[in-house]
């Protein structure tokens, strides 16, 4: 069971150990890179000067170097965005394409993501890859949704569990619901959003709560049942510190994934695992 204990003023909190999950994915990536007869390559396409995107791309670069994967950032104007993606589709030296968000204003997300070549869609944003999920086919599932599944599989038997997902985005909440419903995983899934009524009642009745809202301290202790598993997807920057969507008091009664150092690092590890997967498939 991937958990680690930390004493806290006489009591103890059980953190879900996401670091070791990320580490084992990265070890697997390194081994598979060594087995390839070429160096796989990821290209990240960016269209804005957003500082948090720039910082994320710097950490992608560092991780790529560590894993032996070539990495390039292409900065492009809104007008050239789609043609850049078309060129990357043709480029045989590129195995994975990542589109940085936020997109430049005026660009339609669905149109841009549809232009990410399906076989290089390492983030799982192309509607075709998302559609495969409905058939239980997870060739390139969205990395964060897959990260949540990996965490849950490492700490519990998902089958038959009541799971509530708070948040219905295309990248996290919706694909995760489909992945947890998949035959073989067999969770009973409820998806909540800003119009959900009596949210606390729903989350309190759940064995597992996944929060992907983007509001610090959103999930409070009285919204969670004792012994539940809580997956914190949120990333918020408050008072000079990173934190998730889960209030710290929840840790007193539930197993929680930490932020930072939780789902986010598994998401990044999986992005690179998808690059290797794409390279293996393109080679075959
Ligand atoms: N760790 C990672 O790797 C990773 C990856 C992706 C995102 N994130 C983080 O996860 C968070 C969510 O990201 P996202 O892209 O999924 O967000 P998003 O597209 O902004 O969606 C947020 C969701 O939260 C719901 N929501 C907002 N207020 C609510 C309320 N009061 N009660 C119930 N639901 C509420 C929204 O409902 P409506 O649909 O009704 O508006 C929406 O479905 C962000 O902090 C983001 O930075 C982390």
UniProtKB/TrEMBL annotation:
<dbReference type="InterPro" id="IPR020630">
    <property type="entry name" value="THF_DH/CycHdrlase_cat_dom"/>
</dbReference>
<dbReference type="GO" id="GO:0006164">
    <property type="term" value="P:purine nucleotide biosynthetic process"/>
</dbReference>
<dbReference type="GO" id="GO:0000105">
    <property type="term" value="P:L-histidine biosynthetic process"/>
</dbReference>
<dbReference type="InterPro" id="IPR020631">
    <property type="entry name" value="THF_DH/CycHdrlase_NAD-bd_dom"/>
</dbReference>
<protein>
    <recommendedName>
        <fullName>Bifunctional protein FolD</fullName>
        <ecNumber>1.5.1.5</ecNumber>
        <ecNumber>3.5.4.9</ecNumber>
    </recommendedName>
</protein>
<comment type="similarity">
    <text>Belongs to the tetrahydrofolate dehydrogenase/cyclohydrolase family.</text>
</comment>
<feature type="binding site">
    <location>
        <begin position="167"/>
        <end position="169"/>
    </location>
    <ligand>
        <name>NADP(+)</name>
    </ligand>
</feature>
<comment type="subunit">
    <text>Homodimer.</text>
</comment>
<dbReference type="GO" id="GO:0004477">
    <property type="term" value="F:methenyltetrahydrofolate cyclohydrolase activity"/>
</dbReference>
<dbReference type="Pfam" id="PF00763">
    <property type="entry name" value="THF_DHG_CYH"/>
</dbReference>
<dbReference type="InterPro" id="IPR036291">
    <property type="entry name" value="NAD(P)-bd_dom_sf"/>
</dbReference>
<dbReference type="InterPro" id="IPR000672">
    <property type="entry name" value="THF_DH/CycHdrlase"/>
</dbReference>
<keyword id="KW-0486">Methionine biosynthesis</keyword>
<keyword id="KW-0554">One-carbon metabolism</keyword>
<keyword id="KW-0368">Histidine biosynthesis</keyword>
<dbReference type="GO" id="GO:0004488">
    <property type="term" value="F:methylenetetrahydrofolate dehydrogenase (NADP+) activity"/>
</dbReference>
<keyword id="KW-0658">Purine biosynthesis</keyword>
<keyword id="KW-0378">Hydrolase</keyword>
<keyword id="KW-0511">Multifunctional enzyme</keyword>
<keyword id="KW-0028">Amino-acid biosynthesis</keyword>
<dbReference type="InterPro" id="IPR046346">
    <property type="entry name" value="Aminoacid_DH-like_N_sf"/>
</dbReference>
<comment type="pathway">
    <text>One-carbon metabolism; tetrahydrofolate interconversion.</text>
</comment>
<keyword id="KW-0521">NADP</keyword>
<dbReference type="Pfam" id="PF02882">
    <property type="entry name" value="THF_DHG_CYH_C"/>
</dbReference>
<comment type="function">
    <text>Catalyzes the oxidation of 5,10-methylenetetrahydrofolate to 5,10-methenyltetrahydrofolate and then the hydrolysis of 5,10-methenyltetrahydrofolate to 10-formyltetrahydrofolate.</text>
</comment>
<keyword id="KW-0560">Oxidoreductase</keyword>
<dbReference type="GO" id="GO:0005829">
    <property type="term" value="C:cytosol"/>
</dbReference>
<dbReference type="GO" id="GO:0009086">
    <property type="term" value="P:methionine biosynthetic process"/>
</dbReference>
<dbReference type="GO" id="GO:0035999">
    <property type="term" value="P:tetrahydrofolate interconversion"/>
</dbReference>
<feature type="binding site">
    <location>
        <position position="235"/>
    </location>
    <ligand>
        <name>NADP(+)</name>
    </ligand>
</feature>
<feature type="domain" description="Tetrahydrofolate dehydrogenase/cyclohydrolase NAD(P)-binding">
    <location>
        <begin position="142"/>
        <end position="282"/>
    </location>
</feature>
<feature type="domain" description="Tetrahydrofolate dehydrogenase/cyclohydrolase catalytic">
    <location>
        <begin position="16"/>
        <end position="123"/>
    </location>
</feature>
């Amino acid at each position: 069971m991937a958990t680690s204990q930390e004493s806290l003023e006489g009591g103890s909190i059980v953190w879900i150990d996401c670091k070791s999950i990320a580490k084992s994915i990265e070890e697997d990536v390194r081994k598979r890179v060594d087995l390839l007869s070429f160096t796989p390559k990821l290209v990240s396409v960016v269209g804005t000067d957003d500082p948090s995107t720039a910082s994320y791309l710097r950490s992608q670069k560092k991780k790529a170097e560590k894993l032996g994967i070539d990495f390039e950032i292409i900065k492009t104007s809104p007008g050239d965005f789609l043609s850049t993606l078309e060129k990357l589709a043709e480029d045989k030296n590129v195995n994975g394409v990542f589109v940085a968000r936020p997109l430049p204003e005026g660009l339609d997300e669905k149109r841009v993501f549809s232009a990410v070549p399906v076989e290089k869609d390492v983030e799982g944003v192309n509607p075709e890859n998302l559609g495969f999920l409905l058939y239980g086919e997870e060739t390139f599932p969205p990395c964060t949704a897959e990260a949540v599944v990996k965490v849950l599989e490492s700490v519990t038997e998902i089958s038959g569990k009541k799971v509530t997902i708070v948040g219905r985005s295309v990248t996290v909440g919706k694909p995760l619901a489909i992945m947890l419903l998949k035959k073989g995983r067999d969770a009973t899934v409820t998806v909540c959003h800003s119009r959900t009524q009596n949210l606390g009642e729903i989350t309190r009745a759940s064995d597992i709560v996944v929060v992907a809202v983007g509001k610090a301290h959103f999930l409070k202790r009285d919204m969670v049942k004792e012994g539940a598993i809580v997956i914190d997807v949120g990333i918020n920057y408050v008072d000079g510190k990173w934190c998730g969507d889960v209030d710290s008091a929840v840790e007193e009664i539930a197993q929680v994934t930490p932020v930072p150092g939780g789902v986010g690092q598994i998401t990044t590890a999986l992005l690179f695992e998808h690059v290797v997967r794409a390279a293996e498939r393109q080679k075959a």
